[in-house]
Amino acid sequence: MVDFARDQKELQECNRDFQVSGIKVMPKGEANLAHLLGTIPGPIGTPYEGGTFKIDITLPGATLGPISVLECEDGYPFAPPKMKFATKVWHPNISSQSGAICLDILKDQWSPALTLKTALLSIQALLSAPEPDDPQDAVVAQQYLRDYQTFLGTARYWTEALAMTSSLGVEEKVQKLVEMGFPEDLVRTTLENVGGDENLALEKLCST
């Protein structure tokens, strides 16, 4: 079963130094510590610099429900967390379609001694050091190997288009949704939980 006490502790420790690391993890819904949303900054000196990337995290060993979490066997931390990019990214080891990540510690090299933050740091390191010979996305890997400059330009374009949200843009979204009659605090929380997607935020606000 999932060790939710450890899970809660990890979230607190990870978020404590957010100002330094830029990495944080939050539950995707209330009373649900088995489905999380991680955030990592794009590494400096890479085409991902300046971007903020959302990582969808599911902890194995739990059945997700709208209100409660039912525990079962062989859960986190003995099994690795299931992680994928919620923000689209152009990278040889990350699917440009599904966000699936090719990383050994999320598979057979996982150890219970590792943490969610360790995994997110490893994903951040993967952004800095792609491994095109062991790709998740063959099309991106071929571009990386055969036309590196085009790869850099494409990866940068995707970062600027999909992973960068100006503070002004966020405030405009907040104002627009507040004017529709939703409480500001709820609007901000919902926008953060969906990675700034205004349409998805509106859908969730209307369903609450």
TrEMBL record:
Alphabetical UniProt keywords: ATP-binding, Nucleotide-binding, Transferase, Ubl conjugation pathway
Occurrences of domain UBA (ranges): 169-208
Stored SMART domains: UBA, UBCc
Pfam families: UBA, UQ_con
EC numbers for this chain: 2.3.2.23
CDD domains: UBA_II_E2_UBC27_like, UBCc_UBE2K
Domain UBC core, chain residue ranges per copy: 2-164
Keyword set includes Secreted: no
Lyase recorded as keyword: no
GO molecular function, one term: ATP binding
Active-site residues, as the UniProt record annotates them: C102
Top-rank taxon: Eukaryota
PANTHER family (alphabetical): UBIQUITIN-CONJUGATING ENZYME E2
Record family assignment: Belongs to the ubiquitin-conjugating enzyme family.
Name this protein carries in UniProt: E2 ubiquitin-conjugating enzyme
Organism the protein comes from: Sesamum latifolium
Organismal lineage: Eukaryota, Viridiplantae, Streptophyta, Embryophyta, Tracheophyta
